[in-house]
Amino acid sequence: MEFQSCVNIKKEWDIVGARQLGRDIARKIGFGTVDQARIATAISELARNIYLYAGTGKVCFEALEEIDRKGIAIIAMDDGPGIKEIGQVMEDGFSTSGGLGAGLPGVKRLMDEFDIHSEEGKGTEIRVVKWLR
Amino acid sequence: MRIPILKLHNYLLISIQIDLDDQTAIQFQEDLLSKIHENGASGVVIDLTSVDIIDSFIAKVLGDVVTMSDLMGAKVVLTGIQPAVAMTLIDLGIHMQDVPTALDLEQGLIKLRQELEE
C-alpha cells in the first residue's frame, strides 16, 4: 500500500471532488487519458450510489505497487441500508432511483477487479482495482 | 453554476466547459427548455468537446434533454464527444442510439440544417 487518501461524501458536489482527486491520482500513477476517464467515471458512479442510497460515506484511493505491476484501488464505503439483492443490482438496467441502472455493472466493466460486501442495515463496501497496462 | 446558452438565428448553441455536477446538469436541462420556449428555437447544438467525463447520470440528463426538446419541436445534436468519453460510455452500457451526434460544432450545424429541411 503506497498511500491512502479519502474523500467524504456528504453532499452532491463531493461526487465531483472524489472523481477529480481520483483522476489526479490515476494520472500521477501513469494512466492514459482513456483509463483516467474510466477510473473517474467509476468513482463518480460509486460516489453517487453512496450519496443516493446511504446519504453519507467515503471514497478512498490507494496507489498499488507490486513487483511487476502498478495500479489504483478505489474503495467506496458507507453505513447505509445495505443492498438486499446484490445479484439484482449487478444486472444491467436495474434501478430503484429512476436512473439508467448502468451504475454497478458499468463500474465492473470499467475496472479490472470488483469486490462488493454488503450487509442489510450495516452498509456496503465496494473495492475496485484498475491495473496499469 | 449556470451554463451559458447562446442564440444564433433560430438555433441555440451551448458549449459545456465545466466538470458537470448533478445540480448544474439539472439546472441546464431546465434552462435549455425555457430558452427553447422563449426563443422558439428550432435547433440546438450542445458541444461536449471540453467534457472529459460523462457518467450514467449525466448521460441520462443529456439523453432526456434531447427527448424533451424533441417533444417541444426542437432538434438537438450533441457534438465533440471525446474518444475517451465514447469508450467509457460503451463500457458503462450506455449507447445513446437515438441521440443525434456530430464530430464538431460545424458538422453539428450542418446536421441540424439537414434534419430541419427534411
From TrEMBL, chain A:
Residues 34-133 form the Histidine kinase/HSP90-like ATPase domain. CDD domains: HATPase_RsbT-like (cd16934). This is Anti-sigma regulatory factor. It comes from Halobacillus salinus. It comes from the Bacteria. Pfam families: HATPase_c. Coiled coil: none annotated.
Automatic annotation (TrEMBL), chain B:
CDD domains: STAS_RsbR_RsbS_like (cd07041). SUPFAM superfamilies: SpoIIaa-like. InterPro entries: Bact_StressResp_Reg, STAS_dom, STAS_dom_sf. Gene3D superfamilies: STAS domain. It holds the Pfam family STAS. Signal peptide: none annotated. Transmembrane segments: none annotated. Residues 1-112 form the STAS domain. This is STAS domain-containing protein.
